Amino acid sequence: MSFNTFGKQFRFTTWGESHGPALGCIVDGCPPNIKLKEQDIQVELDKRKPGQSKFTTQRKEDDKVQILSGVFEGKTTGTPISLIIYNQDMRSKDYGNIKDKFRPGHADFTYFKKYGIRDYRGGGRSSARETAARVAAGAIAKKVLENKLGKKFKVVGAVTQLGILGCDTAKWNDQVIKKNPFFCPDKSILKLWKKYLLDVRKSGSSCGAVIEVRARGIPIGLGAPIYSKLDMDIASAMMSINAVKGVNIGSGMNSAQLSGEQNSDEISQKGKKLKFNSNNAGGILGGISSGQEIVVSFAVKPTSSILTTRKTIDKFGKNTTISVKGRHDPCVGIRAVPVGEAMMNCVLLDHYLMNKAQCS
Amino acid sequence: MSFNTFGKQFRFTTWGESHGPALGCIVDGCPPNIKLKEQDIQVELDKRKPGQSKFTTQRKEDDKVQILSGVFEGKTTGTPISLIIYNQDMRSKDYGNIKDKFRPGHADFTYFKKYGIRDYRGGGRSSARETAARVAAGAIAKKVLENKLGKKFKVVGAVTQLGILGCDTAKWNDQVIKKNPFFCPDKSILKLWKKYLLDVRKSGSSCGAVIEVRARGIPIGLGAPIYSKLDMDIASAMMSINAVKGVNIGSGMNSAQLSGEQNSDEISQKGKKLKFNSNNAGGILGGISSGQEIVVSFAVKPTSSILTTRKTIDKFGKNTTISVKGRHDPCVGIRAVPVGEAMMNCVLLDHYLMNKAQCS
Amino acid sequence: MSFNTFGKQFRFTTWGESHGPALGCIVDGCPPNIKLKEQDIQVELDKRKPGQSKFTTQRKEDDKVQILSGVFEGKTTGTPISLIIYNQDMRSKDYGNIKDKFRPGHADFTYFKKYGIRDYRGGGRSSARETAARVAAGAIAKKVLENKLGKKFKVVGAVTQLGILGCDTAKWNDQVIKKNPFFCPDKSILKLWKKYLLDVRKSGSSCGAVIEVRARGIPIGLGAPIYSKLDMDIASAMMSINAVKGVNIGSGMNSAQLSGEQNSDEISQKGKKLKFNSNNAGGILGGISSGQEIVVSFAVKPTSSILTTRKTIDKFGKNTTISVKGRHDPCVGIRAVPVGEAMMNCVLLDHYLMNKAQCS
Amino acid sequence: MSFNTFGKQFRFTTWGESHGPALGCIVDGCPPNIKLKEQDIQVELDKRKPGQSKFTTQRKEDDKVQILSGVFEGKTTGTPISLIIYNQDMRSKDYGNIKDKFRPGHADFTYFKKYGIRDYRGGGRSSARETAARVAAGAIAKKVLENKLGKKFKVVGAVTQLGILGCDTAKWNDQVIKKNPFFCPDKSILKLWKKYLLDVRKSGSSCGAVIEVRARGIPIGLGAPIYSKLDMDIASAMMSINAVKGVNIGSGMNSAQLSGEQNSDEISQKGKKLKFNSNNAGGILGGISSGQEIVVSFAVKPTSSILTTRKTIDKFGKNTTISVKGRHDPCVGIRAVPVGEAMMNCVLLDHYLMNKAQCS
């Protein structure tokens, strides 16, 4: 069972509710003798932190992480690493007026029906606040992978579509991503996105997004067919993120429209260097990494908490309406970027370690 | 670890290579006292069987399944059910001339690099022939679900896009699906698809497909957040099928383009009956089934084994070319329909059983 | 993988080192709607707490537990329960003089060789301090089982052998156990044990113990053959406790000396009541609970940290000697009683929940 | 879940009933490029085969194993290895007269109560016949370990106590074990054991046994604290064998009676060679292998199927008596020796592979 645990060899187990006293995770299976300090994790959490621009929720959270175990004299010891983040801005009152209603598009209805009880404050366990713990775990995975794979290794995510507006991924630029509040990789579209999202926010509505995550410097051979295929585990990882409804590997859904000639990536050798002539596969063949860049994209649905009044029912089965005030992101997809990166790092490390057991 | 095992509570472990003496699976965690006979499994296998129309491979396989354990006097006993299918048409010679080459788009390259050895006959373990074992396991899951959920329960899959040609899913008709070789749900498009696929085959090329699987009569409450979400496990299941490159739940990738108002499904109550006014969620909220129809679609890339000559390298690192003769499906997506149904049945039963443990 | 996680359906993952800032666990898979407060856990922790009598270590630990998640308005919600205990009495200086030496009988040598690094303060992760987290998890399991199984349900442990001194288990009395610092079930032997253990302590030596745990009111049918047999999982649970070297179910090792007639428990029916005429099986047949009392016993080796000077080597491979001062239990077996009870509660709940999934 | 699956990285899943058409297992996680042929497995099966001497059941089973997958051109490929053994001597009639009765000491009662159905023929799934599949899996583990660890590696088991008769384990001789039908390691006791067991058989009774398994040439560092400790997994493995009621690691239950000085094994260094001065730990410290010989012993209860008439009830709740004729081993413990060896090989390989993932 893996209710709140992700991964096989490198595993993390998260806990905590949106408005509880704290949240965190245990990272298990981390190799020993890797340098690790709180700041390594904090930098990743800061990317995801709310309240950083007018395009994200104004909820204030410092998201200060503490390492409680598993690190001794600055190095991992191979024992479980416990991370904790105390919550600060828990305005539970915001939720009092909707505590008996099911917000459309949220997990309120299904949690209540499944468990017969729910923590209604900010969605409780179903809140995207849980992803802070994943980002923390991902930061550790990143440190280990950098140690094992060296400088060529890099995982980088971006928003490639904001609502109805795409961007030109051929213009992808890692440096651009860092310097705009959308994690957009294409400088030329920024102005348009900004105007569009402000309009969405002003109208009390919300929009979805597509996030793309790329991983470079990945060795050939990661992935364990048949039921721990690398693409299967990546899809699983991304689909586990709140509000994600679709996942593509390489050409993804588009591959259905290609011919065999267009789709299968030819291989050629130039001296000692092997080269694929295209990357429709997204770096994965038969569930195993091919050494090409791994490319995954996923769709995040628009924020369901909107100002617009919507029809719903309450827990007594009565028809009612709802308008969610609170402090919500007009596009939750933006803050999903560091989460997607974190999940990618975790899956890759998981498979990197498993591959040692399988093939050495 | 779950290299060749799928599922948590209801689990199956598959084995066998494309050109080995046999293939099969062990189904573990099947509840006791469920009526089961070989014919129940055979009917599902027959849907997937090659050589049934001119649109699929002409490889002849009877795919006769035998139950070797776990059933006593016509009923399951709660012990592992071992299923075996002996292979019949093993023309390994077909592969002799390509045994040292890596077929573009196939797992040849990655298996060889990962394991340092590979069974080159028909792709060995990476062949889609493995999916016969899944279909067999899925047939058992279906029998159990029918027993537990009654008549309203139904899982049905269809091809909703054949290469560049879509169909009108609003015209979805279960009866139509059964009566055409494409598992197409829309009668009006059949002629066009037929002509298109014959052209593809004649040209020695291939095309991809989109498959949609729908599940009805599913109780509220299946799914175990956070890391065994129902949509996560369905995505994982579908992505594990050979050649699948993208998965959508409900509105899927398209949800990125919707506004919050368009996307979140309003809820209303009429007497004792609860109703969602739309189903963008695809029947799953917060990773838990909502009682709505569960809708998943996935893209299958075009068959990589094509007649057209392609550039590749051999295992000695030399540039060469390849043209795959053999007997291949012009569109492997078609035979993925019963596989998608099988995986859906397995995931649903897995979660149905897990839910008993979580909430009773 | 289950490095730091115990259980399948009801799972706990522990973290923390002997002299770190805190320790704790995440309990996952706990059913919803069970009343739970910190005090329920605290009472169990207090049984294990050091410094309670002159027969246990004088290390001072309040072991105050906090619930950080998974409980809302006094009830479990079905989401992960995070428990934390902050450490108070961390005299790391005590260990400075032995930081480079391997204490005989301890994990110092193997941890260092395996991981290439170790937290030498009080054994770090290998310290029995980790068992506090298990006792906390076990307290939750107990609450759930009491809720599900009612008043007949009870798990109770005792020390049945202290070093070379046994006791008469036919005189087992639950009330006696509570009232003596040895958890001894036989009042008649108490004086002797007291004198014996004071002598052991005075001499700077230590002694082992046998602990017996009994579970009553257990329904028939818990246990999942073949590789999750109830006795297998109980043995596994007990063997995971620090310093345990042997485990018996029912007649245990002694069963080797019995004849078939002596050993197999006859069954008889009196009206509606089924009765076994003996209980050599220890309440488990074929890995499944039979409804009889479940009886397990296990041996705890003598404390390895003793005043007596012992030969060992240091991490540079040099011969040296060691005499461990610190504040150690003369018999660690005594404080293993609440740990054995906790593990029993956890295994039973795990199987109780799994059985729902298997057979309902 | 692991109902019928054993192991984490190196895993086997068994299937089959005592009187079904066949039994077998899937071995998953076996490293690639290991030479393997059916004969490697057959030699181990032949050690366990019934009908080899007058001291074991006269049921005739050739136990011929076939490899159905996972091996290509004489080498493992890293894909699942499916093994099958067809049953030959299925005299189900022998069981007709007891099909409604619960044999005391057997799993008949608990299987029926748990599942509401049971295959009464020879115990069905609860029969020790299942252990043939384990021996087959263990043979593969042995081949891999021999390949990885070289000549120093050896696992050898023996019967060290037959009913009420012990033997002198100080006289342990591997060569003696091979040459007597009891797997007894002490030549001097053979005559006595022979006379004793013939008496037991003649009287229609049965006796228990203690089996000891030793593993040499094991590297330091195997074992994953806290909940995959090597001793925990070994205890678990042995306790999963039919009729096992107790397990000791090293001094085992006896350690309770030792003082700290007697029990903890001193360490000393002579040049480059590290030496433990004793081995009460049984080769495992803190759940991790220390490089010493690993020593485990376990008790097998006396065969429950005896000629002597015993009281029991039938499935309708009526009192009755039973006398089991069939063809049973007077001491099932004897044939448990190759099973114990197999389980040890499997656990060791499992941890050997896991250690690669944890620490490389």
Automatic annotation (TrEMBL), chains A, B, C, D:
Reduced FMN (FMNH(2)). The keyword Thylakoid does not apply. The keyword Flavoprotein applies. Coiled coil: none annotated. It is an enzyme of class 4 (lyase). NADP(+) binds at R48, K54. Belongs to the chorismate synthase family. This is Chorismate synthase.
